[in-house]
Design a protein that fits this description.
This protein is of the alpha+beta class. The chain has seven helices and seven strands. The strands form two sheets. Strands 4, 5, 6 and 7 form a four-stranded antiparallel beta sheet that branches. It has a three-stranded antiparallel beta sheet with strand order 2-1-3. Strand 6 and strand 7 form a beta hairpin. It is elongated. The two termini are 23 Å apart. The C terminus is likely disordered.
């Protein structure tokens, strides 16, 4: 799943190049119409326009795009203790299928040509496991070796990328894969892909 922003979706909907001028022009066309919002069903790269009542009536299958002004990071904002606790409960994935879908959304094996949302970077097993420890208890007792065994047979998309052993700060060599990684500030938005946490990220 490729993540794009609301501004990018608006330009795509009107078959226009993504730039500040077109964003300003076509955002007004949507924002000036009452009860209309741009959204998507299964593929974020195929935007549609629907009335907000239709979107709100089926929030598990019709999803809104993240705005630059309110993208959610992987760490909930502090200040509302009750809401923070609710968010922390919701962000933990409970099945391996959800974990795989999450990783497929975060790490792309091919260039999506969307430098605003993705960046090319090298990742190791440690990087992936550290990310998962933040979002699931399924891997809480996994070692890097144990995780590597599951990781190698899980059919995660970016596993098709050949790994190269490179030295790290400790002097050891680790296997690194070059992927197109979702930028940190957009990681929270992929939770909309998972029905059971969708409601937690509605502002």
């Amino acid at each position: 799943m490729t993540t794009i922003t609301r501004d990018q979706a608006i330009c795509a909907f009107y078959y226009e190049e993504y730039n500040d001028k077109n964003v300003a022009k076509y955002s007004k066309l949507i924002d000036n119409v009452e009860d209309i919002e741009i959204c998507y069903k299964t593929d974020p790269t195929k935007p549609i326009l629907l009335c907000t009542h239709a979107i709100n009536s089926d929030p598990f299958h019709i999803l809104k795009y993240p705005k630059k002004s309110d993208v959610v990071g992987s760490t909930p904002k502090q200040g509302n203790t009750k809401k923070d606790a609710h968010l922390k409960r919701c962000i933990f994935f409970t099945t391996l299928g959800q974990v795989i879908a999450f990783l497929d959304a975060i790490y792309l094996p091919e260039n999506s040509n969307n430098t605003e949302v993705y960046e090319k970077k090298g990742i190791s097993m440690n990087d992936v496991l550290s990310l998962l420890w933040q979002h699931t208890k399924l891997m809480s007792e996994s070692t890097v070796i144990g995780f590597s065994r599951w990781y190698s047979t899980s059919k995660i998309d970016f596993m098709d990328i050949p790994a190269k052993r490179k030295p790290v700060a400790t002097g050891q060599k680790v296997s690194i894969r070059q992927v197109y990684s979702l930028k940190q500030e957009y990681i929270g938005t992929v939770y909309q892909f998972f029905n059971y946490v969708f409601d937690c990220f509605i502002s």
